[in-house]
Amino acid sequence: MKDLEFKYLKTLADQYPTIAAASTEIINLQSILNLPKGTEHFMTDVHGENEQFIHVLRNGSGSVKRKIDEEFGNTLSEKDKKMLATLIYYPEEKLELIKKQEDNIEDWYKITLHRLVQITKRVASKYTRSKVRKALPKDFAYVIEELITEKVEVQNKEAYYNEIIHTIIRIGRAPEFIVALSNLIQRLVIDHLHIVGDIFDRGPGPHLILETLRHYHSIDIQWGNHDVVWMGAASGHAACIANVLRMSAKYGNLDTLEEGYGINLIPLATFAMETYSDVNCDAFALSTSVDYNSNDRALDTKMHKAITIIQFKLEGQIIKKRKSFGMENRLLLDKINYETKTIEIDGVTYALKDTEFPTVDPKNPYQLTKGEEQVMERLCHAFTRCEKLQKHVRFLFAKGSLYKVYNSNLLYHGCVPLDENGDFKKVNIFGKQYSGRALYDILEHYARRGYYTTNDPAEREKGQDILWYIWGNPNSPVFGKERMATFERYLIADKASHVEKKNKYYELLNDEETVNKIMTEFGLDSRFSHIINGHVPVEQKKGESPIKCGGKLMVIDGGFSKAYQSKTGIAGYTLVYNSHGMRLVAHEPFKSTEDAILQETDVFSDSVIVETSAFRLRVADTDTGYDLRESIYQLEELLRAYQDGTIIEKSE
Q1: N or C: less crowded end of the chain, CB within 10 Å?
Q2: Residue 448, phi then psi, degrees to nearest 5
Q3: Can you give the three-state secondary structure of 200-252, one letter per residue?
């Protein structure tokens, strides 16, 4: 036995000091391998739509409703099933309504508690008792365990269980118990959650979504470009901060920053009122929701224009500084002809809708004015000192990455950059060439340094610039377009200038050779694997399918954001992967939480079985199973060491 192996077994012996202890754990782990695989839930591009997101999270994209159907079949009416499902999604709110409506609340409690216990038994059945026990709410752990555990030794089981429920009702704890069971069902229906990017921007509640995710039991996140720009803003990168503010202003969501995160925007508001008081801002009209307070529109429009011009300047400074980023074609402020009110881009001359830029010096267009510098200094201080934002961004770094390989699935937000020949594109990052998986890895390396490095200012600055690069560079895996045409969309009426050509990757989504090549690059067996992709909305209304390459690749961005729903025709896709296979769920537009509670409406409208397994998938078929088999092997080695005397058992 090698020294290193012996040392490892000695350490393992501290945890399992006897033959009996090691044997028990081997038996336990071996049995877990044969349990059904836990259900995975995939969501992407939620873009701040917190009410719809939380509803879909609670219903598990229809998983709760399916469990109710499986358990009760035709023994419950559709009306009763809808009521039970809504109760599980929103237990506190639904209970308040039912208390006002029910004449005999005790009878309702009795019936409902029995039904919830049945559902809890079903959703707990695929887990070990130990795992279920860890998920139990502290206040009711013992009682719930009694109710969902079969008591072989109890002769009159029905009387035993009825008495427990009767006592819960008699002592006035039924409402709290219903809430506890409902939350437990939500917890057990989904074993693991994947967020495939873009939590931020457009919708009003990214901070509420992140606060929910921070407390979710098992989760990973693949960063989208909208997440990364907020991460850059939290690091104090001025250009990222300007982008975050511009988008918040454009979509009427400055309240997210001011009220959601407590970031003081008075410096920007004051500057905008003074500098743009008599300036035409029509080109910077807002795209607001029905909830927007129109009294704020005039000021918000001025703030929108002010921060957009600051953004163009700051980005121009980075492009000039970082020649290797290859973005000189985005230097546009110096191309404006103020006499003819035109600009030449890529050899084409366009008329400009607006050239009234009081802070732009045509001779030095990328230099901030003194007032702009002061605004950005105060905003940088506000972003870096915002405790809630920092907490959320640290969570994104802790639980997130640019890609994830999980249970034979490759998850990423945008694309793997390809050249025109369909090969992995070689990209220059600070003087070295990277492509494929290595490109993801180096970008993530610098992104983390941009946020966490404190003792090397030059490295931190490089990392922060990379966070901005990931946001909108043509070679960024989470952007994947030839340019971000922000300038053109604001200032040029000709829509031909707005086109953002996608990376070659998007032309080859149905090319099996390309898809297989990507899987192999990330260490997956292309015969059994899938790619789960976000970022680009699937336009179902035009007949586009989210299922590509015969089911090997799925693009599950279907327009969670209300801003996209007129384009896509639906309100988002989600994916559910359980022990029976994969199911893609298309969602209807979500009205409101209030409507879901009062009318008992749900938002999943249609589902497609992408793939079914010929046999029920077990834990043994997952990444967890691989780890468990490795643990079993090591424990069996320890057992042999005990049996041949290499390691001595500790006395009891």
Answers
A1: C
A2: -65, -40
A3: CCCCCCHHHHHHHHHCCCCEEEECCHHHHHHHHHHCCCHHHHHHHHHHHHHCC
Tell me how many degrees the CA angle 593-597-601 measures, rounded to the nearest 5.
Answer: 85
pLDDT (average), residues 292-308: 91
**Separation CA 459–CA 450 (nearest Å):** 7
Rounded to 5 degrees, φ, ψ at 424 are -60, 125
CA angle 482, 488, 489 (to 5 degrees): 100
Residue 536 burial (C-beta neighbours within 10 Å; 0-12, 13-18, 19+): middle
Paired tokens of 206:
């990214």
Instruction: Specify the pLDDT at position 102.
Output: 87
pLDDT tens digits along 249-258: 999 999 999 9
Q: What are phi and psi of 502, to 5 degrees?
A: -80, 160
Is the per-residue pLDDT at 593 higher than 60?
yes
Question: What type of residue sits at position 175?
Answer: P
Q: Which amino acid is at 30?
A: Q
Query: 221: closest CA among 416, 47, 396, 478?
Result: 396
Report whether 196 contacts 219 (CB < 8 A): no
Q: What is the mean pLDDT of residues 269-277?
A: 96
Q: What is the pLDDT of residues 93-119, one digit of tens each?
A: 999 999 998 889 999 999 999 999 999
Lowest mean pLDDT among 135-144, 299-308, 451-460: 135-144
Give the burial string for 153-176 (b: 16+ CB within 10 Å, else e).
eeeeeeeebeeebeebbeeebbbb
Q: What is the rounded distance in angstroms from the CA atom of residue 290 to the CA atom of residue 250?
A: 14
Question: What's the CA angle centered on 237, arms 236 and 243, to 5 degrees?
Answer: 115
Report CA torsion sign: 538, 617, 39, 91.
positive
DSSP state letter for 321: H
* Residue in this structure with the two tokens 């349990």, named with its chain if needed: 35
Residue 267 Cα distances to 98, 136, 234, 640, angstroms: 49, 48, 18, 70
Q: Count CB-CB contacts under 10 A for residue 122.
A: 18
Q: Name the 3-class secondary structure at 25.
A: helix
pLDDT at 196 over 60: yes
Quick one: CA dihedral 625, 626, 628, 632, positive or negative? positive
H helices present in 136-173, as ranges = 141-148, 157-170
**Terminal Cα distance for the chain, rounded:** 26
Cβ neighbors of 183 (< 8 A, separation 6 or more) are: 91, 137
Structure tokens of 208? 């509420």
- Percent of the chain surpassing pLDDT 70: 94
Residue at token pair 């989760």: 219
What single-letter DSSP state applies at residue 412?
E
| 3-class state of residue 358 by DSSP | coil
Q: Are 549 and 533 in contact (CB under 8 A)?
A: no
Residue 650 confidence class, pLDDT cut points 50, 70, 90? confident
Strand partners, 608: 584
C-alpha–C-alpha distance, residues 647 and 650, integer Å: 9
Contact 75, 139 (CB under 8 A): no
pTM of the shown model: 0.92
Owner of token pair 């989210």: 546
SS3 464: helix
